[in-house]
Amino acid sequence: MLKQLIDRNSLVYYWGFIAISTLAIILAWTTEFYALLALPVAIIIGVITFLDFKKIFYFLLFLIPCSIEFKVTESLGTDLPTEPLIAGIMIAFFIYVALDPKKLDFNFFKQPVIIFITLQFLWAIISSINSINTLVSFKYLLAKAWYLTTFLGATSIFIKDLDDVKKFFWCIFIPLSILVIITLVRYYPLNFAFEEVNKTMVPYFRNKVNYGTTLTIFLPFIFLAITWQQPNTWKKKILIASVLLFLAGIYFSYTRACVLALMVCVVGFIAIKWKLMKVGIIFTSLIVMFFIGFMIYENEYMNHAPVFEKTIQHDKYEDHLAATVSFEDASSMERIYMWIGGTFMYLQHPIIGNGPNTFYPNYKHYTVHSFETYLSDNDEKLTVHNYFLLTLIEQGLVGFLLFICTIVSFLLLAQKYYHLATVQEQKNLIMACTMSVIGVVVNLSLSDLLEVDKIGSIYFMAIAMAINVFVIIDKKKKETTAILS
């Protein structure tokens, strides 16, 4: 109906668009309010959205690797051009579903992982109402709403079969690979020097951690794509070469958590294959609890306070690793400084939390001065460097447990459905999505990355794509049971 109407009045729409675009350009020029130049683009995207919503979704995926952080004010930033598009897709998604509710598969939303994610979001609303700074907490909620809607909700509709997964892969792989090549080419004249690493990937990545983590969590999908290709084809050769390219990118990002994540992914792969995921989760939990208990007992953590003069940022990666082990690396000790402050901050509101987005402005009141380094001024306004602890601080014990339940339920379900799947393509996709999620989880233990558009988007889409497979397997199982009965 809409297409027929557009065809019938195409000339009117064409000249209307020209008039609006011209007016926007004139107003932008005369008022110096250059944001008006985005109006013609917004109109085009809006029209395409109503004509073919799916194309806009894949267009967003293509833009994600290329997004740039933009400071609107000192306290407000956004990712351009992706975040406005993500917000627009959220609105379009609700209209799209309202016009045809059957497009939603409610079996997707009955999955335990989605239930836990929904409950955590609802709890974040409660935590925001009781926040020590309600305004910044509700900004978090708004951003979280369009991330979940776009990368969980829209993915549940638009990436259902293998062809859709392939589109997802190529939309992200092509621009991301180009950026890796550009980064390495820019890094080469600098002799891949450790102290120069953060200069090579701007403006597309804030720092080496964001860059390395993005490559790490997308790498499993390259291995997945290799399984789609026939032997000795040019696509397969390119994909195999890209594995080496991404590994080089990860190595030269000099990000310790990414190297650790790759090793944990290998362990996770074996755990799923041998049905050891539950044992692995219990073992990991016991180690973490033992370590925390050991550090708390009789204030043992105080015995590891750094010597201010010796705790510096090193110029060589080897020195950086050695200093990490000896508690003389500034960035590592700064993490511990924040973790201690964050723990004391958590104790102020242990159940409900201090409210989303409230850590940075308030944590210094709770820090222990013995752990200060020359980085403790925190000019970059970084948060606690551990997403689990950040959730505990800002959303309290309830929010933290819901986040843990999301991860644990996903890993256990991934193992279950991997072995229930009878189609190899389904097994491969489940494994790739799970390895990507594991990569995110490991990096979250040393950084706060889930709200970064390049990382949070892949994380939620990996979960959504895997759950789509779970739903397909459940339906097939029910059909088989019905036939046998």
Detailed description of the structure:
The chain has helices at 2-8, 10-31, 38-51, 53-63, 82-99, 106-109, 112-129, 134-158, 162-187, 208-226, 234-251, 256-273, 277-296, 317-325, 330-346, 359-362, 387-420, 424-444, 453-484; strands at residues 68-71, 77-80. Helix content is 69%, strand content 2%. A hairpin with a 5-residue loop joins strand 1 (68-71) and strand 2 (77-80). Among the domains are: 1-51, no CATH class; 101-284 and 385-484, no CATH class. Residues 5-9, 307-312 and 319-327 have low confidence and may be disordered. A two-stranded antiparallel sheet has the order 1-2. The chain contains 19 helices and two strands. With 485 residues, the chain is mainly alpha-helical. The longest helix has 34 residues, at 387-420. The radius of gyration is 24 Å and the shape is globular.
Structural class label: mainly alpha
Uncertain runs with pLDDT below 50, 5 residues or more? 5-9, 307-312, 319-327
Helix/strand order, N-terminal first = HHHHEEHHHHHHHHHHHHHHH
Count of DSSP H/I helices: 19
| Sheet with most strands | 2 strands, antiparallel
Number of strands: 2
Strand neighbour order, sheet with most strands:
1-2
What oligomeric state is this?
A: single chain
Query: What is the beta-strand fraction?
Result: under 5%
Instruction: Classify the helix fraction into a percent range.
Output: 55-70%
Indicate the overall shape. globular
